[in-house]
Amino acid sequence: MQDITATRRALLVSGLATFVLLGVAQAIIGPALPVYQQMFGLTTGGAGWLVSGFWIGCFLGVIGIYLGAGRIGPRPGLAGSAAGALIMGLSPWWPAVILGGVVFGAGYGSLSAVFNPRILSAYGARGPSMMGLLNAIFSLGAIAAPLVFLALGGSPRDTLLVTALFAALIWLGSGGVSRGGAGANQAQTGFRLHWPILAFGVLAIGVEASLVSLGPTALIRAGLEETQAARLFSLFYVAYLLARTSLIFVASRIPAFTIFSGAVAVTLACALGAIFISPVWFFPPLGISASLFFQGFFVTGIRKMGTDARVPSVIIASGLLGAIVLPLICARLMDGLGDRGFFWLILAASVAMLAAAVPMHRQMVR
């Protein structure tokens, strides 16, 4: 029993530190993107390739975990995160920055695919709540990233070098998380794809990725200054943190797909508010819905597709497909849709999801 407790503790401590890093990784690209546009003379669509490169890397990292089927620990992902941040921070050439984003993303995707299923499995009935804790801690890094970015004079280089150092320190402290320790699963019993939940994941995680990567750019296009956009982005992650923290207490009591459907409804309402009232007031609450998408679709997907070791990677990969494609589509289209075009695109995606989720709700919570 003591051995089990010790391995769980090592897994949780490493996971918490890693998810602070993942929060920084996801949140730093948004504030950095307008700076890169100015540095390299890019259009919004051209800068959007960094967002897609990051998520393509995430997809590749998840594929690696799928192929490893439970045999890979966190250290390769931490090494990839450190290397990618270094490449992004030190490269004077835009294609090399995108390459760094791919490597950075590969570390992110690998770490998400390692820790989420292991925490869910290691804590049994408390798994959804502990996964909620893990993802709440993610928000601390995401809140800190824009503030650190501002404190370092709006320099992507300096912020990314600090991020690389942080990843290296976590790598040093994660030696106690073995590949076959608490929550590890190498069973390959077979599984059947559940297409509806995978489709929801494509759209929902695509919306989340669009909000966190293009949100600051959308706010600046709506007439806000860069510093105000960065502060609103931090408030977005404060809302994200509060919603994720609530999952610690309710995730084991409320069906995961109910949480997902509620998040879609919040997205729709906030997109309408941003379009017709003010993005200043309605962009930060979008952090509530963005924070709930992953938990809702991931836990539902596990329930529907089974305990095969490869299932978590398939579920995460479906979301990453949306994260690769939807921000690129938004970046291409938002310039032609007016100063609030981004929020029209978010509204369209949320209407489509809610129209499908409501009639399917009873089937999805069984």
Which descriptors would you attach to this protein?
366 residues, mainly alpha, 81% helix, 13 helices
Fold blueprint:
Elements: H1 2-40, H2 44-68, H3 75-90, H4 94-122, H5 127-151, H6 156-173, H7 195-221, H8 226-250, H9 256-276, H10 279-282, H11 286-305, H12 311-333, H13 341-365
Helix pairs in contact: 1-2, 1-4, 1-5, 1-6, 1-7, 2-4, 2-7, 2-12, 3-4, 3-6, 4-5, 5-8, 7-8, 7-11, 7-12, 7-13, 8-11, 9-11, 9-13, 11-12
Keywords: Membrane, Transmembrane, Transmembrane helix, Transport
Main location: membrane
Organism: Fuscibacter oryzae
Helix content: over 70%
The structure class reads mainly alpha
- List the uncertain runs: none
Describe the main β-sheet briefly: none
Give me the Rg, rounded: 19 Å
Strand content: under 5%
State the distance separating the first and last CA atoms. Answer: 34 Å
What string gives the helices and strands in order? HHHHHHHHHHHHH
Give the averaged pLDDT, no decimals. 87
Shape: globular
Number of strands: 0
Count of alpha/pi helices: 13
InterPro entries: MFS_trans_sf, MFS_Transporter
Subcellular location: Endomembrane system
Family: Belongs to the major facilitator superfamily.
Keywords: Membrane, Transmembrane, Transmembrane helix, Transport
